[in-house]
């Protein structure tokens, strides 16, 4: 190895270390300023945005805000990229990417899944509460969704948290030998009983909170985009690009 190449490699390592240190310094400044306002603020990630001098700050709950490097100026709202008549929501794109990864990494065996008998053309992940009226309405359309090739993956989100009656019911659903049947019974207002077991109800509830779920049903598509609230089966199929 020539002296020049050694020097170049050494310079690259120094610059890399300096950039990493600078990045940590920016994150520290932004975090300090935000926590001075509210000590409970949790900064999960700070990255450079496409706008020079502006940083994207991801907070707990998958909330994204923007800040100057010194943390003295905060921007709230979505960052849009304009290209002629085309508008791209960069904030939503980044938010959805993170959501999609978290949902993809979550074990499917921990969910209550209603799968099509034939070809699976698409899927939705639904954070649900068994006592929610619109959740029950959506559940009545699960067979229709399955017929169209749409898989429904349920995750638990008892809106009242651990103290709510729905929490205990959903634990019973997840601990049942036939989760699909138990889910349907619970959504019909019938009592569901099962022996206690190691279940993911709290884990799924906490994931929902992290993703910013604040109501049910909350439907997520494979790309991480959120559809808040109930949508008829035909409308969902259209959103998913599924032909009947």
Would you mind describing this structure in some detail?
This protein is of the alpha+beta class and 244 residues long. 42% of the residues lie in helices and 21% in strands. It contains 8 helices and 11 strands. Strands 7-9-8-10-11 form a 5-stranded mixed sheet, with helices on both faces. A hairpin with a 2-residue loop joins strand 5 and strand 6. Helix 5 runs antiparallel to helix 6. The chain is globular, with a radius of gyration of 23 Å. The termini are far apart. About 3% of the residues have low confidence.
Describe the secondary-structure layout:
Layout: H1 3-37, E1 43-48, E2 54-59, E3 63-68, E4 74-75, E5 80-83, E6 86-89, H2 90-105, E7 112-114, E8 122-128, H3 133-139, H4 142-147, E9 150-156, H5 165-175, H6 179-187, H7 201-210, E10 218-220, E11 226-228, H8 233-240
Parallel strand pairs: 8-9
Antiparallel strand pairs: 1-2, 2-3, 3-4, 5-6, 7-9, 8-10, 10-11
Quick recap of the structure?
The protein is of the alpha+beta class and 244 residues long.
What would the keywords be for this entry?
5-stranded mixed beta sheet, 8 helices
Query: What is the makeup of the main sheet?
Result: 5 strands, mixed
Parts with pLDDT < 50 across at least 5 consecutive residues: 14-21
Number of DSSP strand runs: 11
Portion of residues in beta strands equals 15-25%
Ends distance:
64 Å
* Helical content band: 40-55%
Could you say which overall geometry the principal axes of the C-alpha atoms support? globular
Radius of gyration: 23 Å
Order of helices and strands: HEEEEEEHEEHHEHHHEEH
**Number of H/I helices:** 8
Spatial order of strands in the largest sheet: 7-9-8-10-11
Structural class: alpha+beta
Whole-number average pLDDT?
89
